[in-house]
Amino acid sequence: MPVAGGSRFSVTFWGTRGSIACAGPHTVKYGGNTSCLEVLCGDERLIFDAGSGLPMLGRHVLANEGPVDTQVFLTHTHLDHIIGMPFFALFHIPGLTVPVYAGHLKPVGMSLHGVLSDMMRAPLFPVPPEIFGANVSFNDFEAGEVLHPLDGVSLRTAPLNHPNGACGYRIEYDGKAIAYITDTEHYPDRMDDRVLDLIQGAGIMIYDATYTDEEYEKFVGFGHSTWQEGIRLADAANVETLVIFHHDPSHTDDMMDEIAADVEKARPGTIVAREGMTLTL
């Protein structure tokens, strides 16, 4: 097992959008790629979600470090969270080892390899996963398990309230914690105890804030939440820094600026995720 050496504990956002990538002049500031996070635990890297931001991360790693082993953890397998996988450079380099994990499929008798094979097949895609040159393994666990991807790093997991299932993560390293909670829909009459447990006392909480409370009324059942609910959860769990994430593709930079101003008033220090942003604990 690789050892996470060094004190650095950071998260970089390579994709901040939900549902579908949105390129254009009105999404430059906050970014248009879908979910992809890079978490550095000392000298080791963990990747969370494989949306359209993943290929950029792969090119960055190759340009700055060369071919290196890494690990990928998925919240779920809706297209916006896996669409970058066929284009991830590290998957195509012989000799590398790149395990991929998902925690929402095993309980329903499905497999990650099966889902990706269904995506990478005719008539949807020209080549199958077998074209990957690296040793890419597909590993299913059950959300709720505790994983140990690196010596000195623990991943606590829990199921999230999302159509077809999803898995939340709490990354613990060097006495600190980053919680990654997307895609999830809050309950109308109570807070989600599983989410509260994952985020309790976290230094950083990255939360699915696709909608505002006003917008949410039109999207009940879509499996997403609001920045207002994120603040309620963060306050209840004594989270240090809340990060608004999984931006709706219809939200322009101007709209996101308005949301950023609103969240700063409601909970000073709250951050709206931007593509390329790095936060360090």
TrEMBL record:
Q: What is this protein called?
A: MBL fold metallo-hydrolase
Q: Which UniProt keywords apply?
A: Hydrolase
Mind telling me which InterPro entries this protein's record contains? Metallo-B-lactamas, RibonucZ/Hydroxyglut_hydro
CDD domains cross-referenced by the UniProt entry: TaR3-like_MBL-fold
Q: Which organism is it from?
A: Hwanghaeella grinnelliae
> Example GO molecular function term?
hydrolase activity
Every copy of the Metallo-beta-lactamase domain together lies at: 33-224
